[in-house]
Design goal:
The chain is of the alpha+beta class. It has a single domain (10-201), classed as Alpha-ketoglutarate-dependent dioxygenase AlkB-like (Jelly Rolls). It has helices at residues 19-35, 88-97; strands at 10-13, 53-57, 61-63, 71-73, 106-112, 118-121, 133-139, 141-146, 156-160, 165-168, 177-183, 195-201. Strand 3 (61-63) and strand 4 (71-73) form a beta hairpin. Bound molecules: N-(carboxycarbonyl)-S-(naphthalen-2-ylmethyl)-L-cysteine and fe (iii) ion. The site of fe (iii) ion (FE) has 3 residues, from loops.
Length: 205
């Protein structure tokens, strides 16, 4: 099958982090989660639970709940504390790969158990679309989907593995995307299995 082309500005760096670096990143993320526990995000208006568990690090974090919907804010929705700092390894990654002058303001941490998924969506809660989103996958493999700027555009599926980095710049920044499924038991990185995805972002214009 020929497959569809990927949107311009999409870069996939397979194995960008080796096993030792992945282990250091997991240690850093465990510290983030200790300070800012994973919480259950809820859809705007309906209050329906998402299957992915979330937290953040950085000056701003992406949150969602029934009453106030999708937004960035400086504090954890449950502890009310400021988010912990973005770990230096992730700042280094951004400085090496993002091609953008300013450092990331937000790092969303998504945790997927074996049954979690993320429906097709666009990331447009930011005011700055000139900056890319830089994403890191850790733990179990997943099937990632990416289309174009219209929901009806053709979709490509590709597996993402532990240590992979994906950079969404240019036209791909506003591409529809999602996570169709997790492949349980495909990685030994996380003691209890599952998948972590980290997304580094600029938020303000
Ligand atoms: C394409 N996360 O947090 S990472 C998200 O695996 C999100 O948890 C997925 O979609 C995950 O919003 C996908 C790859 C990714 C991240 C951001 C994008 C792809 C993107 C932004 C624009 C286009
Ligand atoms: Fe997204």
């Amino acid at each position: 099958m020929a497959g569809f082309s990927l949107p311009a500005g999409f870069r996939h760096l397979p194995g960008r982090f080796d096993r030792a670096a992945q282990e250091r990143l997991v240690t850093d993320i465990r510290a983030v989660v200790s300070a800012a526990p994973l919480y259950v995000p809820r859809m705007p208006r309906t209050g329906k639970e998402m299957s992915v568990r979330m937290t953040n690090c950085g000056a701003l974090g992406w949150v969602t709940d029934k009453e106030r919907g999708y937004r960035y804010q400086a504090t954890h929705p449950e502890t009310r504390n400021r988010w912990p700092a973005i770990p230096p390894m992730l700042l280094d990654l951004w400085r090496e790969e993002a091609g953008f002058d300013a450092d990331p303001q937000a790092c969303l941490v998504n945790f997927y158990d074996a049954d979690a998924k993320m429906g097709l969506h666009q990331d447009r809660d930011e005011q700055e679309f000139a900056a890319p989103v830089v994403s890191v996958s850790l733990g179990d493999d997943c099937l990632f989907r990416i289309g174009g700027r219209e929901r009806s555009d053709p979709i490509r599926s590709l597996p993402l593995k532990s240590g992979d980095v994906v950079i969404l710049g240019g036209a791909s920044r506003l591409a529809f995307h999602g996570v169709d499924r997790i492949y349980p038991g495909t990685s030994t990185l996380l003691k209890n299995g599952g998948r972590i995805n980290l997304t580094l972002r600029r938020v303000t214009g």
